[in-house]
Task: inverse folding
């Protein structure tokens, strides 16, 4: 049985005082659920967040990770830096980084590989655009995003990774894939991994992301291949975030 996983991506939102208040609210009201709960604050807030949750069940993650171990890479944050503050996870290949910062599959694979090398669990983000979905190339696009990582980092690295599927047309738009639409793609991803390693396919956590809210979380998590969710805007409110997390109880 794969363990459930809920990850909150705060993106470039929230100020320092609100971030601390939010994490304190989450910790105070966090229910006993057989699933892991992760928050990914902006880099500046990671040290304080990590310190405040050190003795709790809440886990700290990062919104990205450098493709290099160290060096002259202005503005980047290395895996070793993140590890100093007990970051367990790092999102790599989020659609916004692919779109706005030209992170292609090779760059994403290098970020992924650095996370693995640093002892951080990469959350490999995959997804299709609305145009690609209408053209019927969703599976092809997602497969390429995963296979390019396998080519650089190897299939065995997926023993220590998470995969997420986030349709671009559902991120920040209020539109959400139905449980059946999401399940179709996540089942394809698991079959793809199974063709490389049945053992990894059985164990790897695969998440759905894209306008996840308390109202749709239960239906999404009822799908057999959806092991958890990557939450954006709803993770900025403790009540809504914990309602999503509590969906594992039902």
Result:
């Amino acid at each position: 049985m794969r363990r459930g996983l809920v990850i909150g991506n705060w993106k470039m939102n929230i100020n320092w005082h609100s971030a601390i208040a939010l994490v304190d609210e989450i910790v105070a009201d966090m229910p006993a659920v057989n699933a892991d709960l992760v928050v990914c604050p902006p880099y500046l807030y990671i040290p304080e967040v990590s310190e405040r949750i050190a003795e709790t069940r809440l886990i700290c993650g990062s919104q990205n990770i450098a493709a290099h171990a160290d060096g002259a890479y202005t503005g980047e944050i290395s895996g070793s830096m993140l590890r100093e503050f007990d970051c367990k996870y790092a999102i790599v290949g989020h659609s916004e980084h692919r779109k706005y910062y030209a992170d292609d599959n090779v760059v994403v694979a290098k970020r992924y590989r650095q996370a693995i090398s640093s002892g951080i669990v990469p959350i490999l983000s995959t997804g299709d655009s609305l145009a690609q979905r209408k053209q019927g190339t969703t599976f092809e696009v997602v497969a390429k995003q995963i296979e390019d990582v396998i080519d650089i980092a190897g299939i065995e690295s997926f023993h220590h990774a998470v995969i997420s599927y986030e349709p671009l047309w559902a991120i920040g738009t209020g539109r959400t894939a139905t449980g059946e639409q999401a399940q179709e793609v996540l089942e394809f991803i698991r079959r793809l991994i199974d063709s490389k390693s049945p053992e990894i396919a059985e164990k790897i956590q695969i998440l759905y992301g894209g306008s996840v809210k308390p109202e749709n979380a239960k239906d999404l998590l009822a799908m057999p291949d959806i092991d958890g969710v990557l939450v954006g805007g709803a993770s900025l409110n403790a009540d809504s975030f914990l309602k999503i997390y509590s969906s594992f109880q039902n």
In short: DSSP finds eleven helices and eight strands in the chain. Residues 4-249 form a domain with the TIM Barrel fold (CATH 3.20.20.70). The longest helix spans residues 179-196.
